[in-house]
């Protein structure tokens, strides 16, 4: 009797764990639909492939808001990675950002920085691209 009971208890525990209707840890289809509707779940983002076809395309912020700017040029940076020149409104010079800072969502190009960060890039220059120095040295020399 004891051996029958010892064999039956683990089997009952396994069956109880597999009963539907228990708390689930994954999102239900209704939960996914709600997340898509709220904009909290990204459904079509993909990596941006830099090409000259992007020139003139408007760029939007990932969480909405005003247009971030217009792609002015696509070049290569000093490290060989593609760099996109973004013409930002109210700025006289373009902001140079790597292609990894952008995503493609459908026909839209989305920048992955918030509006305040893009404004700071335009105002104060960009770190790591040789646009100036706070110590008074010549731009881009690092000396």
What does the model show?
With 143 residues, the chain is an alpha+beta fold. It has a domain of 80 residues: Photosynthetic Reaction Center, Chain H, domain 2, CATH 3.90.50. It contains 3 helices and 7 strands; from the N terminus they run H-H-E-E-E-E-E-E-E-H. Strands 1-6-7-2-3-4-5 form a 7-stranded mixed sheet, with helices on one face. The protein starts with a helix and ends in a 19-residue tail after the last helix. About 3% of the residues have low confidence.
Q: Overall mean pLDDT score?
A: 74
Global structural class: alpha+beta
Order of helices and strands: HHEEEEEEEH
Q: Largest sheet, described in full?
A: 7 strands, mixed
Second CATH tier, the architecture of one domain: Alpha-Beta Complex
Q: Strand arrangement, largest sheet?
A: 1-6-7-2-3-4-5
Distance between the ends: 86 Å
Count of helical regions: 3
Percent of residues in beta strands: 15-25%
Number of strands: 7
CATH topology of one domain: Photosynthetic Reaction Center, Chain H, domain 2
In the predicted model, the low-confidence regions spanning at least 5 consecutive residues are: 23-27
Global Rg: 26 Å
CATH class label of one domain: Alpha Beta
**Range of helix content:** 25-40%
CATH homologous superfamily of one domain, by name?
Answer: Photosynthetic Reaction Center, subunit H, domain 2
Shape descriptor reads: elongated
Protein name: PRC-barrel domain containing protein
Keywords: Signal
Organism: Azospirillum doebereinerae
């Amino acid at each position: 009797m004891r051996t029958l009971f010892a064999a039956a208890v683990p089997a009952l525990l396994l069956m109880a764990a597999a009963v539907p209707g228990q708390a689930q840890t994954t999102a239900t289809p209704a939960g996914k639909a709600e997340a898509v509707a709220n904009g909290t779940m990204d459904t079509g983002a993909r990596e941006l492939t830099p090409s000259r076809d992007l020139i003139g395309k408007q760029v939007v912020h990932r969480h909405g808001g005003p247009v971030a700017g217009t792609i002015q040029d696509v070049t290569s940076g000093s490290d060989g990675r593609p760099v996109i020149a973004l013409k930002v409104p109210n700025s006289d010079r373009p902001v140079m950002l790597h292609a990894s800072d952008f995503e493609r969502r459908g026909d839209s190009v989305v920048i992955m920085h918030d509006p305040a960060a893009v404004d700071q890039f335009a105002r104060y220059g960009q770190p790591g691209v040789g646009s100036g120095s706070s110590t008074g040295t010549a731009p881009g020399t690092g000396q």
